[in-house]
Amino acid sequence: MKLSRLALLPVKLQLKQPFATSHGNTSSRPLTLIEAVAENGLHGYGELEAFAEPTYLAETQLTARWIIQTQIIPRLRGKNLRQPQDFSMLTADIQGNQAAKAAVEMAIWDIFAQQHQLSLAEYLGQFISVKPRTEIAVGISLGAQAEFAVQQQVIQQALADGYQRIKLKLRNATELMQAIKLLQKFPQAKFMLDANSCLSYQQLPQLQKLAALPNLLLVEQPLRTTDLVEHARLQQKLSLAICLDENILGLDDVKTAATLGSCRAINLKASRVGGFTVALQIIKYCQQQQLKLWCGGMLEGGIGRAASLALASLPVFDYPGDLSASERYYQTDLINERFILKNGQIKLPQQTGLGVSLQAEYIKRFADQPNLLV
Ligand code: OSB
Ligand code: MG
After folding, report:
1. Are 251 and 282 in contact (CB under 8 A)?
2. Active-site residue, selected from the candidate residues 101, 167, 169, 190
3. Which residues on adjacent β-strands are paired with residue 191?
4. Which end of the chain has the lower number of beta carbons within 10 A, N or C?
5. What is the pLDDT of residues 147-164, one digit of tens each?
């Protein structure tokens, strides 16, 4: 497969409600859409999931776009790809910049899946010999709330909507204590806590208290990003599973974490690890190591969420993913289709490739963007 066109389109989506984490409040989501056209005429789309600021990932929309333009595109020019994994080989000498790689790779996987007349989910599944589920169990990641009563209400609504698992964001140790009380109010629900690095080893006693709650599955990224040693020290003392997110930027990080004993679970996001090729390697490794694995989210737009859903549909995950219904995210989304929650599940699109279509407005705007491959 040879690409004849690659174009970028920066966009900004407005969240229906601001999303509060230890990194601050997010109310709008900048994204860059990638359009790839193959010589055979097939169109593929990708979505760049870096944020405006380098607080969750080191990359930003701006740095990642620059890497795509000056590093990734020159390596693709004139190249013939036999399979999507070839993209990883062509860009293997670029250090880091996982979100930049994943964005372009997504569009290439979309094209290859279409060429094989398969949904992206079916196509991904072939590489690890599994068949995707058609309905995917999902959870919701709820932004932090200062008020106990408000958070209690938000949780109640999410459970009424049918979400199979609730993740609460924490901003500090005080909210950790609040979480203990909140979880006690919903003994039948399943919870995760995501600290986004806002805790320290000092919170071991509180975390031990949480470990006693039967409705808590894990605590995500409690400590400083990159400190796998301190996570290992904490995990050793804790019966509660630690799950790593920000710390894991590739297969080698999973190996290091497994070897040190830094966690018992991994939050997998293809965009954080450089794309699906690496994500599939991580799936295989976690199965060998008996590390729990589940699929996270990054407030993706419709294109990115379709890609994450394809990954989450593979029957290899231990918990419902952070992939909520379209209704929960943006005032207007990028795609014509809506992901609807029914019985706590979202239906996988059945069409080939990503299985969703970009709204006419964006197709039109892409037509005005230059072809960066020429
Ligand atoms: O830490 O998992 C995270 C969103 C953006 C960046 C990081 C994270 C998140 C979420 C939301 O938790 C998941 C989603 O609904 O997309
Ligand atoms: Mg997280």
Report:
1. yes
2. 169
3. 166, 216
4. C
5. 999 999 999 999 999 999
Percent of the chain at pLDDT > 90 equals 99
**Ligand 1 in reach of 245 Cβ (< 6 A):** yes
Catalytic one of 101, 167, 190, 269: 269
Structure tokens at 241: 């599973």
pLDDT score, position 275:
98
Q: pLDDT class for 165, splitting at 50, 70, 90?
A: very high
What's the whole-model pTM score? 0.97
Sign of CA pseudo-dihedral 133, 281, 306, 114: negative
User: For 180-239, how does the pLDDT look when each residue is reduced to its tens digit (9 = 90+)?
Assistant: 999 999 999 999 999 999 999 999 999 999 999 999 999 999 999 999 999 999 999 999
Ligand 1 atom nearest to CA at 196:
1
**Is residue 141 lining ligand 1, measured as CB closer than 6 Å?**
yes
The verdict on the CB of residue 298 being under 6 Å from ligand 1 is yes
Question: Strands, DSSP E only, in the chain?
Answer: 3-21, 24-38, 43-48, 135-137, 140-142, 166-169, 191-194, 216-220, 241-244, 265-268, 292-295, 341-342, 345-347
329-366 pLDDT, tens digit per residue, is 999 999 999 999 999 999 999 999 999 999 999 999 99
End-to-end CA distance of the chain: 17
Question: What average pLDDT does this structure show over 258-283?
Answer: 98
Residue showing tokens 């989210």 = 297
Q: What is the pLDDT of residue 280?
A: 98
- Is 269 known to be catalytic? yes
Shortest-distance Cα residue to atom 4 of ligand 1: 298
**Number of Cα atoms under 13 Å in the Cβ half of residue 286:** 29
Active-site residue 169, yes or no? Answer: yes
How high is the pLDDT of residue 253?
Answer: 98
Query: Residue 352 in 3-state DSSP?
Result: coil
296 in ligand 1 pocket by Cβ < 6 Å?
Answer: yes
Which residues are CB-neighbours of 202 under 8 A, at least 6 positions away?
Answer: 173
Shortest-distance ligand to the CA of residue 167: 1
Residue 326: φ, ψ to 5°: -55, -40
